[in-house]
């Protein structure tokens, strides 16, 4: 396979998604969660004050799916939800201790993934990759918005 074909496969995300599904399989089984719920918890571990709309936008997931997953996470005890005192249309979320344990486990898996995925890439190459990734992400934002 040519390098250009490899890039196309990687940019489509299928190979990466397959790897993530495999690595998070035991975590999904252990906690009885769907991948979307794990993805949301990982996101909230980095951005705990973001709203469901923010999560939907950042993860490119339908708002309805995010809301349903957030509700499931509340029912399962990973999140607490609170109505905004000034505007009841808005809901705030707080990560519970149970949720923090889940996030800690996802971070261990994420570190393992990063060590394997970026093996053999120098710091300079990593900085270049981050810059290119930012540009591609920005281009995608302009295309889909």
What's the arrangement of secondary structure elements?
Layout: H1 3-12, H2 14-31, H3 35-46, H4 52-59, H5 63-75, E1 79-83, E2 91-95, H6 97-117, H7 123-144
Antiparallel strand pairs: 1-2
Helix pairs in contact: 2-6, 3-6, 4-5
Describe the structure.
There is one protein chain. α4 crosses α5. By secondary structure, the chain is mainly alpha-helical. The protein is globular and about 50 Å long. 72% of the residues lie in helices and 7% in strands.
Mean pLDDT: 87
Roughly what fraction of the amino acids lie in strands?
5-15%
Which sheet architecture does the biggest sheet show? Answer: 2 strands, antiparallel
- Helical proportion? over 70%
Head-to-tail CA distance between termini: 33 Å
Q: What is the H-and-E element order?
A: HHHHHEEHH
The total of helices stands at 7
How many strands? 2
- Rounded to the nearest angstrom, the radius of gyration is 17 Å
- Shape by Cα distribution: globular
Low-confidence stretches: none
Question: Which strands sit side by side, in order, in the main sheet?
Answer: 1-2
Summarize the structure.
The protein is mainly alpha-helical. The protein contains seven helices and two strands, in the order H-H-H-H-H-E-E-H-H.
């Amino acid at each position: 396979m040519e390098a250009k074909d490899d890039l196309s496969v990687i940019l489509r995300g299928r190979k990466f998604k397959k790897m993530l599904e495999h690595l998070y399989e035991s975590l999904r089984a252990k906690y009885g969660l769907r991948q979307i719920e794990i993805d949301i918890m990982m996101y909230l571990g980095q951005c705990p004050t973001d709203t469901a709309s923010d999560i939907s936008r950042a993860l490119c997931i339908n708002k309805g799916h995010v809301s349903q997953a957030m509700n499931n996470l509340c029912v399962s005890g990973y999140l607490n939800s609170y109505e905004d005192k000034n505007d009841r249309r808005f809901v705030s979320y707080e990560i519970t201790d149970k949720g923090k344990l889940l996030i800690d486990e996802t971070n261990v898996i994420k570190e393992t993934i990063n060590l394997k995925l970026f093996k053999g890439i120098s710091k300079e190459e990593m900085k270049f990759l981050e810059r290119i990734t930012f540009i591609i992400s920005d281009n995608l934002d302009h295309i889909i918005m």
